[in-house]
Queue: 4 jobs
Job 1
Amino acid sequence: MSRIVGVAGLYCAGKSLAAEILRNAGYEEIDVDALGHQAREVKAWEILEAFGTNDRRELGRIVFGDKRELRRLEGIVHPWMINEVRRRVENLKQDGKSVVVNAALLFPMGLYRLCDKVLWITATLPLRFIRARRRDSVSLHGFLQRVLSQRELYPQKVSKNVDISRVANNGNRRGFERRILDLL
């Protein structure tokens, strides 16, 4: 029997590691961040018309400094991404495969509705900062900006009809893996 598991969490909490653990357990991954890159290609003309550029860095400067511009970009790419996730989930379910939907925006995009279970990955703020410095060479200021920009990602605002489990990723990988697999 196929199962759909969503993985969400804040910046540098360990979403990708959780998705990797599930892949190793036989789940097929749908990486919604990667779909975002595809959506920018598929919707390149609309993005160019709306913003005057398709350059990723330039687009980032435009949208991450202005919530209205970010919402406008999301209005172009999110519908395509949501439909693509739905299509892939259905195809994998028909093949009897279990799926992990790895998405920072799982809740804002409504993708949690496709899931039988959601794992909300957490980690302490200092540990997340250490990971961010190591992985992205981000400054404390840049880290705090990202943290503050993610306030709408929390699962508290969603329907009670979704099974959400918080999974702490503050220690060793083996313990984290065991907690995830025990929940499933």
Note: The two ends are 13 Å apart (CA to CA).
Job 2
Amino acid sequence: MKKVKLAKLLSILLSALLIVSFVAGCSSKDSGTSGDTSSGTTKETGSSDSGSSTSSSSSGEKEKVVLWYLWTGAEGEVVDSIAEDFNAQSDKYVVEPLSVPDMQKVMVAISSGEGPDITDDFSSNVAPYASKGIVEPLYDYIAKSNYDISDFAEASFETCKWNGKIYALPIAANTDALFYNKTLLAEAGYTEPPKTMEELMEMSIATTKTNPDGSIDVLGFPMFPSNSTDAFIIAWGGGWLNGTEMNADNPANLEALKYIIQYREKFGVDNVSAFQTAGKAHDPADPFFKGKQVFRISGAWLPTMIEKTFNVDIDYGICEIPYPADHPELKGRTLINSSTFYIPSTAKNKDGAWEFMAYICGPEGQKKFSVGLGNIPTLKSLMNEDLYSKMPGSEFFGPYTINKNAVPNMSIPQGTEYSTIVNEEVELALNLKKSPEDAIKSIVERSKDLF
């Protein structure tokens, strides 16, 4: 699973909060000295010795490149090993990696000029960071080094742009698919997973098992660990954004909301909520692992957790999120987010940071990263039988992330405010405290000043 980061929304919220500290920190520096310090600090603070790139090159020593990353544990060890591989083949640079799983600490350090030369984040933060000057644009580095960007999957690469400029490189593609328990489906008489939304609802109702008091014993519809609203809206042909423009009033969004609410109305909002709050995701007691959930919307990390992390004995399958029966052209429509690396605008060794970014996001680094972390690569050339044989589920997720209906999830500077409005109104609709029509109207009205 992607790092020891917070959920995507929390990531966005943190970025907006920390932008203030970045602006304040940069404005407090003398205009001619940003990025310079008079003395080095320890690795614990994450900063590098001042002038490392110039002094080391004159003495023949390798120039230091400070890498911070948000992974920990075994996943962090994979990143460390990639840095070691880079150092062994580089005559000019030596990367010093450090796990810093605290987004606030990273941002505060960058704002003060004491942060890393290169670090990682979600693509949802590209626009918020770029619009405030927190991240370095990459076009000149790409052009100068003749770096081949044609191998990147189009949807993943697009998530790294803002205002037409490239600000990061994607290292992993994150998207959702439909997981299903073959045994539970077979018990209900189904031999194939659903292809359409209508089939999914029929199967979900037929396979749901309730207790005498109405509480849910086996959850049929994919509403754990979340309601998966965005995944359904995208599969329905909608989306809260159209590129970087507001798209809340897209008719498909309303249809998807009404569809999800059907199941909650049939089995009771309180009963569904009780199942959601009682379950523990990504744990040996996870309801999908225990045969208490028929359908699950999740990402490429779940097969690795099932087959390697927890060694779960479950007969499961993976398929595309279904499409509405009257819109077969939407088959395979899915939203692509990316895990990225970027160079902070206050980095001391930007050239060295670019060299390492080009390596870790290139074929050698990305292959080791993908296999080690169970993430889908963003390079099309890596999506082959050699990779698929090493990563559970990748034979499905690889082609799925580059299918013609894969949609890049573009970020916007005002993403925090917009996401808050959308989440609040959708929650009211799902809990039957507001009609889906009124919820959509409220999103449009409350958001109009943002755009």
Note: The chain is about 45% helix and 15% strand.
Job 3
Amino acid sequence: MTKLKLTTRLEEWATHSPFRITGKVWTSVPLLIVELSDGEHVGRGEGAGVYYRDDTPARMIHEVEAVRDAIEAGITRAELATLLPPGGARNAIDCALWELEARQQDTTVMALAGIKDPRPLVTVCTVGADTPEAMAQQALAYGPVPALKLKLTEDPSNADRVRAVREACPKAWIGVDANQGLNRATTEALLPVLLGAGVALLEQPVPVGFDATLDGLKSRIPLAADESAQSLADLPSLIGRYQVVNIKLDKCGGLTEALEIARQASVLGLKIMVGNMLGTSWSMAPAYVVGQYCDVVDLDGPLLLGRDRDVAAEYRDGRVEISPLVWGGNDAAAFA
């Protein structure tokens, strides 16, 4: 096993404006950055963590440092899964191992994952929770993009928010995300409004632990599990309650498990969505690999930041394309 050099650091990236969801407002995004070097090649990983599980980058860096010796002794992705639990720390290390392997083999992570011809993806453009009028303006500011995702909250304005955005953007695919802000009764009351507005997806309506309250709910709109789907172990509990699983690398602990979730979800008859916990293009690029298999893609995190990496994902007309030069390819010099 090749010995590795582990480098860690924390970064803080400002949002271009306050970003609000149920129970949380971001003005900046803290991130853990890890680099793994074999002396010739470097693999990079970025972790945002899972804020509602107190999986903060400051905590994550301590988790990584606690297993530094084992990582630097040389470790496989399979061994990593036994060393760290699902979460942002394992995500950052796992992604760094993927990129390092791609560079060692003079190939790309896409190729390692068995994807021969990666395609640009339609990504939702997220509209943070605000007044109905402000959300309509946020949506219009994206231009005529094909897909929008609206953040809803626990307050009574959700119906007006949805109606306002639909009026402003009559042709867009629209999904809504409650981030656990509803309950069975408020979900049932909101469903006719969502149907009338042509909403195509309702994400995580109820809090984690209250998923059983959805039993028997007759919804013509597919329900997506996000906070209730942390890792591979959660998949069986979704059957009969949710029709879509939102895979996030920070939740499940990296690209390795994310790809396995996508595979098993398909076997179980679940539709697949890939999302993000905010972050730069270094977070989006590994998720872009998973996105090649997905029915719904939510990889617009950098659009909510004030700036992105110098070499970054390309967003155009509601679509995202991420070159291996951003992450996951040979060392940049090989592409020059």
Note: The first helix runs from residue 57 to 66.
Job 4
Amino acid sequence: MKDLTEGDETKLLIVFALPMLIGNVFQQFYNMVDSWVVGNYIGKESLAAVGASFPIIFLMISLVLGFSMGSNVIIAQYYGAKKMDKVRAAIDTTYIVLFCASIILTAFGLVAVVPILHILRVPDDIMGPASTYLRIIISGLILTFGYNGVGAILRGLGDSKTPLYMLIIATILNVFLDLLFVLGFGWGVAGAAWATVISQGVSFLGSLLYLDRTHEVLRTNFFKLRFDKEIFASCLKIGLPSGLQQTLVSLGLMFMSSVVNGFGTDVMAGFTAASRIDSFVAMPAMNIAMALSTFSGQNLGAEKPERVRRGFYAALLIGILITAFLVVGLLTAGEHLVGIFSTDGEVIRIGTQYLWVIAPFYFAFTIMFITNGVIRGAGAVFIPLLSTFVAMWLIRVPAAVLFSRLWGVIGVWWAMPTGWVVGMCISLIYYRSGRWIQKTVTKNA
């Protein structure tokens, strides 16, 4: 556990964000291994099937991830205010809610897989492997939720290293199991899915075992968990808008995927490959934003808003410098990066085209995410929700429909980053208003 209310803001943010960034590099590598093995050793149809599954998985976990964000903010603010009894109650409540949600969503997901794939206009030659992959991943949702819940709790307490260590172990295991199940046993996309589920399970259970032995405040008896209605309401108040925000994003991605899927298997495979690289470039901004959210929560809980402002400007500088470096690398090596996932010339061309179109807009993405990190850490979660709704559903989705009819698939690529620019403007305007400072949970309590 780490107290972020004292010390140099820039150094604290770097030290706290770095393990999360490294962890997400491993997380993306974890996902990339699936795509690499599937794309190179099974075929582009299977690569497209894995890509078609992602928006559905994202949709199913969006609300729960939002609740985890809410618990992260609550825990950070109570920890900053040194109210350890409330911290313990928030941890218990988080475990109970995530367990119940995982059971409900698993049952629903297993029934709804095929109808959702049909809604997304997934081609017939991809339907079989896509439904197989999805059913296996959905069966392991309880492990996915568990890992994300533990990670949110730890970040709220200022510990970003423990999830990293467990993720490294899971990534190494995932690589080994992917090669064993897909190449050794010949299980196809089912092998890639089982490798992911087993690796997440090891990561989750390893985190619980480690915490039980090293963090006294996190030592948990699952038969004696205490549900706190007041904290649940606070988590829901903050987490529900965050979850709805994630849901809006996931529904938007599903809609965008349905537009992309209409252009055929080559475009689907190219988009899937490019999206894996896209995720890497977006990671630094997302992790700096998560670190800043915890930093903001703890310092606002300790009634130190000026430290939050200084942390925000430090985070912006760090994020923009990293983004500039990554964008240059993307523009110079995009074709080779896409080629990691497929040797098909048309797939590589399409994926590279996507990266070239969106690359300059990563700066808007970075500023938007970091600004939302401060706002969310304060508990003012409605603004990121509003920003996402306007950017995704009033700007990006209509633009994708219009541009795709005018210019074909490249029009979809141009529609992608339009939402980032609009979202950035909304978030910056609200930050400048200063109203987010009044949303702190501990102050209102």
Note: The chain is about 85% helix and 0% strand.
